[in-house]
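queue> pop job 88
queue> type: inverse folding (structure -> sequence)
queue> payload:
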């Protein structure tokens, strides 16, 4: 066997479809897209859930059961290391102050203070919830904690 006798495996490579190259090619004029409608337009993609206009399966099935996620209480968390960095010694820290400092997304947020990091300043912190380690660190520096209802 010589180099010039080696050929590609039959059927391993398929030529790409060249559309819009005249009637004789079999893919001229509408280029295999038919006439009008969504499928003839560029950028059209049929949704995976589409069932030809029939009511889709996910809409035919009833919504059932209870989901506790609808009733969870979500908290935005703030660490004592962030309080150390942003507030002065003896400062009163509440939800409003945390929002102004950029630690909360909204003034209506519920806040939980966590004990990650070190605290050396005496702070008077009021929030909706505190972790045990955060309570110890704030109290250990002579600060006070207040649970907001």
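queue> result:
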């Amino acid at each position: 066997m010589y180099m010039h006798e080696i050929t590609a495996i039959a059927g391993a490579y398929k030529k790409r479809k060249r559309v819009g190259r005249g009637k004789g090619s079999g893919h001229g004029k509408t280029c295999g897209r038919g006439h009008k409608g969504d499928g003839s337009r560029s950028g059209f993609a049929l949704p995976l859930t589409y069932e030809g206009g029939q009511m889709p399966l996910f809409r035919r099935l009833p919504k059932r059961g209870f989901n506790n996620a609808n009733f969870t209480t979500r908290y935005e968390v703030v660490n004592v290391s962030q309080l150390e960095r942003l507030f002065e010694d003896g400062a009163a820290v509440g939800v409003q102050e945390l929002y102004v400092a950029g630690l909360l997304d909204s003034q209506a947020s519920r806040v939980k203070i966590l004990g990650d990091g070190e605290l050396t300043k005496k702070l008077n912190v009021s929030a909706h919830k505190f972790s045990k380690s955060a309570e110890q660190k704030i109290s250990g520096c002579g600060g006070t904690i207040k649970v907001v209802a």
